[in-house]
Amino acid sequence: MGYKFMQGIRRPEKALTARFVETVSEPGKYFDGHGLFLRVTKAGSRQWVQRIIINGKRCELGLGSPPAVPLATARRVALENRGMAMLGGDPLAEKRKQRERVTFAKAVDTYLESKLSEFRNEKHRKQWRSTLDNYASPILGQMQVSEIGTRDVLRVLEPIWKNKTETASRLRGRIENVLSWATVAGHREGDNPARWKGNLSEILPKPSKIAKSDNQPALALSDVSRWWAELQSREGMAARALEFLTMTAARSGEVRGMTWDEVDMGDSATRATGATPNAIWTVPASRMKNGRQHRVPLTKAAVELLESLPRLEGSEFVFFAPKGGMLSDMSLSSVMRRIQASQEKAGDQGFLDPANKRPAVPHGLRSTFRQWAAEQGYPRDMAEIALAHFVGSDVERAYQRSDMLERRREMMAAWGAFLTMPESVAKVVKLA
User: Fold this and answer.
1) How confident is the model at residue 155 (pLDDT cuts 50, 70, 90)?
2) DSSP line for 306-373
3) Rounded distance, CA 212 to CA 166, Å?
4) Cross-strand bridge partners of residue 57
5) 114: CB partners within 8 A, 6+ apart
6) Domain Core-binding (CB): where (predicted)?
7) Are the C-beta atoms of residues 171 and 132 closer than 8 Å to each other?
8) What is the C-alpha to C-alpha distance for residues 360 and 219, in angstroms, rounded to an integer?
9) How far from 89 is each of 60, 77, 195, CA to CA, in Å?
10) More confident residue, 115 or 351
């Protein structure tokens, strides 16, 4: 983006862009339109400011800070303020009026009314609310948002920053978002006290320096065949769902929410010959963590499992709960815990993650698959696509649009063969 320099002020030859707002670091004032500009300080903090004439007097209004307040939101608020001023109103007086008697607890409630609708996952909705309620509200809840400062935010974060680093880091971001909303809504002014760069980063240690790795416990490759045999001996819909999850390397929520209209069983004539079917499970974008549709090639064994399942009238779910709804998040975990408990009761250590020595969990099975794929020499991108991970940069993804479906079909068939391989063979044979 080009700029004209006038007495230290950077006036753009064209309007700001979202990308520029995200990356700019040089101190200065970067103008957009309607008096709106982005102020970047030497410390690296950024704030939206609007210059506006109110009742013949020139004023500056703070509109919050990016990224909590994106460019589009700042533009919308600036336009609304200008319209109000042109009609004889006073945006500054409105902000001062709105700042009165707005507590942090009230700001959380109002902010989350709109924010929670963005989440497709009910678990994420509950996490957002619970972290704020459990950690922030006891300290900040009855404080007016206009009075909350950096020291107050630190009183929330410091007790858990070292022993619950990931939770504390997410909590900080959520407090920042609530306070940014409060600024845009006119309930407070000035810098955001929960901002990390150039603020809390100067006081608290970086999360990456103190956070302990908390990878989900995975199944050792040497234990896969024995564990698979144990799983297949179990009865119940949750056990079958866990089987399907293992075959497809899918996430628990994707399997539990699976409906029959997402499944194409493929050509029955092909299956009759004993060949691998061309069946596909298409998970819609609305149910995917990355927000993109994901196609899963189904092996012959996966199709046979689906065909063996009963169907419940009135329920759309493939793996349904006793009352017809979706299986709970704990149902698959419970199957694994029962398998582990039976092993320990028999005097065996069970199925422990080789690294952290904790019992394997459903999500860890994806790591087991990923390790197997790497050891078998499958291309990294193909394995990552099978796990529904983003591969490469935005530009690379724009040009690489193939999801390698048929190549992945062969890989998943080999993975299925590994699951059923006798334990003694699985430890020494490397599949082609």
Assistant:
1) very high
2) HHHS---TT--BSSB-TTSSBPPHHHHHHHHHHHHHHHHHTT---SB-TTT--B--TTHHHHHHHHHH
3) 9
4) 54
5) none
6) 102-183
7) yes
8) 5
9) 15, 14, 32
10) 351
Residue 255 contacts residue 262 (beta carbons within 8 Å): no
Whether the full predicted model's pTM is greater than 0.70, yes or no, is: no
Q: Determine what percent of the chain falls in helix, strand and coil, rounding each to the nearest 5.
A: 50, 10, 40
Tell the burial category of 278 from Cβ atoms under 10 Å away from its Cβ (0-12, 13-18, 19+): middle
Tell me the domains of the chain and their CATH numbers: 3-95 (3.30.160.390), 104-210 (1.10.150.130), 221-426 (1.10.443.10)
Provide the pLDDT for residue 359. 93
63 within 8 A of 37, measured Cβ to Cβ: no
Torsion angles phi and psi, residue 424, rounded to 5: -65, -35
How many CB atoms within 10 Å of residue 90? 16
Within 10 A of 397 (CB to CB), how many other CB atoms are there? 12
Task: Write the pLDDT tens digit of every residue in 252-266.
Answer: 999 999 999 999 987
Residue 326 pairs in a beta bridge with 320
Cα separation, 11 vs 7, in Å, equals: 10
Looking at beta carbons, which pairs linking 29-38 to residues 24 or more positions away fall under 8 Å?
30/3, 32/71, 32/74, 32/75, 32/78, 33/75, 33/78, 34/75, 34/78, 34/79, 34/81, 34/82, 35/78, 35/82, 36/63, 36/74, 36/75, 36/78, 38/66
Using a 10 angstrom Cβ sphere, with 0-12 exposed, 13-18 middle and 19 or more buried, the burial of residue 305 is: middle
Task: Identify which of 88-97, 388-397, 409-418 has the greatest average pLDDT.
Answer: 409-418
Question: φ, ψ for residue 269 (rounded to 5)?
Answer: -65, -35
Each residue of 236-258: b (16+ CB within 10 Å) or e? ebbbbbbbbbbbbbbbbbbbbbb
- State the Cα–Cα distance between residues 362 and 334, nearest whole angstrom: 10
Per-residue pLDDT band for 4 (boundaries 50, 70, 90) equals: very low
Q: State residue 272's pLDDT score.
A: 56
Which residues, at least 6 apart from 277, have a Cβ–Cβ distance to it below 8 Å?
A: 265, 266, 267, 270, 271, 298, 299, 300, 303
Q: How far apart are CA 122 and CA 340, in angstroms?
A: 28
The Cβ-side half-sphere exposure at 382, using a 13 Å CA radius, reads: 17
